[in-house]
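Posted in: Protein Modeling Q&A

I'm a second-year student putting together a small comparison for a lab meeting, and my supervisor asked me to include a predicted structure for Allophanate hydrolase. I've never done this before, so apologies if this is the wrong subforum. The sequence is pasted below exactly as I got it from our records. If anyone can share the structure token output, I'd also love a short note on what stands out.
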Amino acid sequence: MTDSISNDIVPTLMPLGDAGMLVKFSNVLSDMANRRAIGFSRLAEAKKLPGVVEVVPNLVSVLLRYDPIEISFSRLAGEVRMALQNQPDALAVEGGRHEIAVVFGGESGPDLNEVAKLLDLEPEAFVEAHNSAPLRVIATGFAPGFVYCGMHEAELVVPRRAQVRRIVPAGSVLFAAGQTAIAATDIPTGWHVIGRTDFRNFDPGVMPPTRLRAGDTIVFAAAEGIL
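Accepted answer (user: helix_wrangler)
Welcome! Here is the predicted structure, written out as tokens:
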């Protein structure tokens, strides 16, 4: 899934309060806009833009928190535009590679059969299709260690559930809107729960507390016990 965004298109720079700048690459989620956002966030961290105290990538944008005493919005905008002129090819952005084993279905994935039915697939065929290609971490956030992975092909896109579950346990593997997500803590969710993993992307006792970052590659594999 790509759009017409290329490296020579300057994103929108928007003020957020008196100490934030949003560098926005698109109004809609796409693979290329997400790659641009991830690539720019890494560039901003590496260049250590003056006055910037935090770089926070999102799905199609990057939040720059800055010290307004040290730098103004207009001056920071100039620094950002200069950095963007030297941004590497968005398609070349790579991260670490991780294999994550998942027990699909049964009590671990109570929505697996429903998702497979929505896609007119047998549960085993859905699992095979789900795991057939690596995914990228397109964003982290929402809850500590929560990971969004995408994007699945159009043939595997289903909407979120009509009803929100009040709580699902850490390790739940979630599926909706062309993405697979991994919960690292107990959370409420409107996504379909298709499995569970022992992998945890949040440990407050270590620094950094998360192992995955936007741009990493995820390979999902079926663990024994598919139901």
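A couple of things worth pointing out for your meeting: The chain has two domains: 12-91, 97-222. The radius of gyration is 19 Å.
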